[in-house]
Backbone:
């Protein structure tokens, strides 16, 4: 009489084991295949990647008026930077358009008057107009603008040999310059009740 009950129990146990292998991983001894994506997501590229509206620029031409700002904390509120020609220099592209409360780190750029289309001329007194874009991003270490250090892109960072510079000590004194005649054609940021800010 125990035999008919035993068969369904064995079937259930076998089904659970098969399901656990399928959902948890391969059996021991099987070769492991990495499923970590080597590239950034489509959502990241949409938010922070190059845009059709980006106008190529030469950072060496950033000789116009701008602003000297002090970022006391990170992130500064600049959501995206664009590299200049030859990968040199960095231009602020999308800036959170308000400060939500006194001392809001993500409102620092807006409160300091930084404008989209301005180029990072110096960080803590060090000239940035001829530096590699990656080095400038490493010095700024702005988590909103530079998520290259997330797990999904760690492999790409490892391939380039790691950081190009250690993050600059806060507070950061950043000089932004404008390019005479440059017209910013990117989207203006708008507040979105669900996601914060969007184009």
Residues:
């Amino acid at each position: 009489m125990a035999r008919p009950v035993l068969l369904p129990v064995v079937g259930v146990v076998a089904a659970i084991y098969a399901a656990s292998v399928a959902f948890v991983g391969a059996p021991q001894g099987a070769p492991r295949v990495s499923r970590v994506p080597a590239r950034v997501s489509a959502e990241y590229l949409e938010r922070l990647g190059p845009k059709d509206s980006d106008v190529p620029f030469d950072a060496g031409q950033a000789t116009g008026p701008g602003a000297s700002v002090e970022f006391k904390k990170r992130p500064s509120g600049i959501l995206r930077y664009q590299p200049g020609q030859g990968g040199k220099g960095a231009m602020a592209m999308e800036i959170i358009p308000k400060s939500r409360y006194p001392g809001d780190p993500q409102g620092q750029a807006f409160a300091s008057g930084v404008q989209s289309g301005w180029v990072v001329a110096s960080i803590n007194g060090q000239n940035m107009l001829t530096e590699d874009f990656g080095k400038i991003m490493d010095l700024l270490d702005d988590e909103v603008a530079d998520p290259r250090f997330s797990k999904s892109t760690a492999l790409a960072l490892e391939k380039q040999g790691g950081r190009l510079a250690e993050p600059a000590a806060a507070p950061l004194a950043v000089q932004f310059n404008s390019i005479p005649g440059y017209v910013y054609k990117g989207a203006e940021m708008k507040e979105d009740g669900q996601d914060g800010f969007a184009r």
About this structure: Strands lie at 64-71, 78-83, 90-95, 119-123, 126-127, 172-178, 190-192, 196-198. The chain is about 25% helix and 20% strand. The longest strand covers residues 64-71.
